[in-house]
Structure formats: C-alpha cells, structure tokens
Specification:
This protein has two domains: about 190 residues, NAD(P)-binding Rossmann-like Domain (Rossmann fold, 3-Layer(aba) Sandwich); about 80 residues, no CATH class. The chain contains eleven helices and 16 strands. The chain is globular, with a radius of gyration of 22 Å. The mean pLDDT is about 95. It binds flavin-adenine dinucleotide (FAD) and uridine-5'-diphosphate.
C-alpha cells in the first residue's frame, strides 16, 4: 500500500523547483515545496525597499531567444521593455558595454567598423595566440590588449578570485563583441523585467501549491523524503552526497544595500567597476530596471568572495578540477530512481533563468510523457 502523502517533494523554491511544481500541479500531482530560506523564489527574489523592487541576490535581467519560454513567463506577469546596457567605470573613465563601436570610439576615437577592426587586429597580431585555452587567451584573441586590460582582466580576476589564465574560456564567450553602435548587452530576441518584480512570477508559479519555508532538507532528509513518491532536488549536488568526493567550488557575493535620499544615483541600472583595485564588481541601482520615479533610490554593491559552507553558492566554477569532481557526483545521481536533480546547484552549471526554465521543461516532459506512455 502506498501511504505517501505527496507525489513530489520539491527541495528548493527557485525557478527550477517552481516551474516543476507548477507543471506537476497542472498534471494533477500533489506537491510539497520546501525551502531553507524565509521566502520562496530562490535567487530571483525581490524585496520591496522604499517602493523599489530590490533584486536581493544580484541584478536579474531576463533574456531568451525561445518564444515558448518568453510566452510562458509573460503568462504569469507582463515584462517591461528594459534593455540591459551596462556602463563600465575604469579608473574614472566611462565606457559602453558590451564591447561595441561606442566602446571602441571611447577607447581610441575610431569612427568606423573598419578602423575598429584594424586597431583590434593590430593588437591581436602581436600576441601570437593560436588555440586559446583559457579566459585570458580567449579574451585577448577576440578583442586585443586594450579592451582586455581595461575592461576584462581586473573585473574577471576579482569576480572569480583566480587569475584569468586559470579560468575557462567559456565565461567570456557570454559577452558579445559587436561592430555596430549597439549597447544592448544581450543578443537575444526577447528581454525585460517583470513589471512589479520577480516575485509576481514565482508567486504565480507556486499558486495553489503547498510551500514550507525555513526548512532545511538535510535536517531530516529521511523524514521529508518519506512523504513523497519522488524528490526533486535543486540544492547542491555535493551536499546531497555528503561531500564524499570533496566540495564543489563556488564563487559567492556579499551585497551592500544602501538607500539614498536622492532621486537618481548613477543614471543607469548597472555600472561595472572594471579595475582590480575597487573591491566590488558593480553597483546596481534597482529603480532603473522598472523606470521608477520614487523620490529615493536603492543601490547594491556586489563584493565577490569565495564560496564556502557559510557563503551562499552563487557561481559554479566550471574549471577542469571541479568538472571532474562533478562528474563523479553526476554518475551517482544518474543511478537514482526516485530523485530528480535540477537547477544551477544540482546541475552545477552557470545557467541563466531561461536556461533553468528550459531545463525544468525537459524534466517535466521526461516525467509526464513517461507516465503517459505507461498509462
Ligand atoms: P536557486 O534560485 O538558487 O534556488 C535554489 C533554492 O533551493 C534556493 O531557494 C535555496 O534556498 C533552496 N535550497 C538549497 N538547498 C536547500 C536545502 N538543503 N533545503 C531546502 N532548500 C534548499 N540569470 C539571468 O537570466 N539573468 C541575469 O541577469 C542573472 N543574473 C544573476 C546574478 C547573480 C548574482 C546570480 C547568482 C545569478 C544570476 N542569474 C541570472 C542566474 C539565475 O539566478 C539562475 O539561473 C536561477 O535563479 C536559478 O534557479 P534555481 O532554481 O536553479 O536555483
Ligand atoms: N566581464 C568582464 N567585464 C565586465 C563584465 C563582465 O570581464 O565589465 C566578464 C567576467 O569574467 C564575468 C563574465 O564576463 O564573470 C560574464 O559576465 P556577465 O555580465 O554575464 O556576468 P553575471 O551577470 O553572470 O555575473
């Protein structure tokens, strides 16, 4: 006799857990979501401060090329037309990001794509890099020495706490290089911020579903797991296996939130500080995500720190060493019959929100198509 109360116990109410819970609920499944934090939503959670939606765990800009994912999120909350165009401050000099004709004009006074390409190529030619196999070589062979030295090296080394020659090249491939005057940080078709904040999205996803907060799965894992036929686990995969192959490394952040008694602090949602000597990587001014007109403003400085059991694990460090350790955990996870592993922490991937939703969709179709076939 099956005396389990729930079909699914979902550990973690971030986007992976919430999307999975919502879709399972629509299939008539009974779900319990638990989260160790005192709120749902994971890292996209916003806190209202002085009428401003503050992205409590760092700036979150939604972008995707996938119309189905865009329509899905917009079915819970309407997104605005916010377009991310960060500014870089390097020793007081201001540059447009991502690297584009505006940046090249600001750096060298070049006015045409041909002039910019020639300038970059002349720097690349002096370097003799054939097969770039780390972040430094990759960046240098894409944009040359000046952009690398002023806009990449300092930011990257403080963000990751490692020298750029020891970082994987893929991190920098996230940033576009354009020979047009286009300051849009993302190249995706769809982009925006939920009007009224991300909580509207996660609240919509979790509507009708039982959520218990301030609950750490590991305080009674057997007890929690016993409640459901299957567990959807979105926490750290190494912790699930009691760190038996060692800890996977993460980069973390300390956030310093400040309220200012002025209307507009920096004129842009995101300003990156790209020199090594400034201890934070960027200052976020949250009201600009939603074109806010409040009399005050709220900013957040992001200070990178090493991840640890105490510091929140934000960025997986997907270098060779950690990838090899992750593989060992993944082999164990693949053999589990009644546990599904998903999300940034369980998949140990530097996934953006749309990729997490895509990954949850895949899991949903694996689960429910499988059951449909069985039935
Ligand atoms: P999470 O949101 O981390 O949720 C996991 C949840 O599980 C958490 O709530 C946690 O408390 C809970 N949990 C963990 N262990 C336990 C346990 N033992 N018991 C109970 N609960 C547990 N993406 C973008 O698309 N655009 C951006 O601009 C962007 N900016 C980002 C900026 C920063 C600083 C960071 C860190 C990420 C950013 N991302 C961005 C990525 C985005 O946050 C993730 O893709 C997404 O939120 C991950 O969702 P998730 O459900 O996998 O994980
Ligand atoms: N980066 C950089 N200079 C910048 C912004 C980003 O060198 O001004 C590099 C840095 O290594 C960073 C990576 O590009 O980790 C990815 O940047 P992104 O803005 O996507 O980082 P996230 O928003 O995920 O923190």
């Amino acid at each position: 006799m099956n005396n389990k109360i729930y079909d699914y116990l979902i550990v973690g109410s971030g986007l992976f857990g919430s999307v999975f819970a919502h879709e399972a609920y629509l299939q008539g499944k009974k779900c319990l979501v638990i989260d160790k934090r005192d709120h749902a939503g994971g890292n996209v959670y916003c806190e209202n401060v002085e009428g401003v939606n503050v992205h409590k765990y760092g700036a979150h800009i939604f972008h995707t090329n996938d119309k189905a994912i865009w329509d899905y999120v917009n079915s819970f909350v309407e997104f605005n037309r916010y377009t991310n165009s960060p500014i870089a401050n390097y020793k007081g000099e201001m540059y447009s990001l991502p690297f584009n004709m505006n940046t090249f004009y600001q750096l060298w006074g070049v006015k045409t794509p041909a002039e910019a390409k020639e300038k970059i190529q002349s720097q690349i030619d002096q370097l003799n890099i054939n097969n770039p196999d780390n972040l430094e070589q990759q960046a240098l062979s894409l944009v040359g020495t000046d952009v690398y030295e002023k806009l990449i090296k300092g930011y990257t080394e403080k963000q990751w706490g490692r020298v750029a020659t020891e970082l994987p090249a893929f991190i920098i491939k996230r940033l576009p290089v354009r020979f047009t005057f286009d300051n849009n940080y993302f190249s995706d078709k769809y982009q925006g911020i939920p009007i009224g904040g991300y909580n509207k999205l996660t609240e919509g996803l979790l509507k009708g579903i039982e959520v218990r907060l301030n609950v750490d799965y590991f305080e009674d894992r057997e007890g929690w797991s016993a409640l459901a036929d299957q567990v959807v686990y979105t926490g750290k995969i190494d912790q699930y296996y009691d760190f038996r192959f060692g800890q996977l490394e993460y980069r973390s952040l300390k956030f310093e939130h400040e309220v200012h008694d002025i209307e507009n602090y920096q004129g842009n949602a995101v300003v990156n500080y790209t020199e090594r000597e400034v201890p934070y990587t960027r200052i976020i001014e949250h009201k600009h995500f939603e074109f806010g007109t409040q009399p005050n403003t709220v900013t957040t400085k992001e200070y990178p720190v090493e991840g640890s059991l105490k510091n929140e694990p934000y960025y997986p460090i997907n270098d060779e060493k950690n990838t090899a350790v992750f593989k060992l955990y993944k082999e164990l996870a693949d053999q589990e019959y009644d546990v599904i592993f998903g999300g940034r922490l369980a998949e140990y991937r530097y996934y953006d929100m749309h990729q997490i939703i895509g990954s949850a969709f895949k899991e949903v179709s694996r689960q429910f198509d499988k059951q449909a076939v069985k039935a």
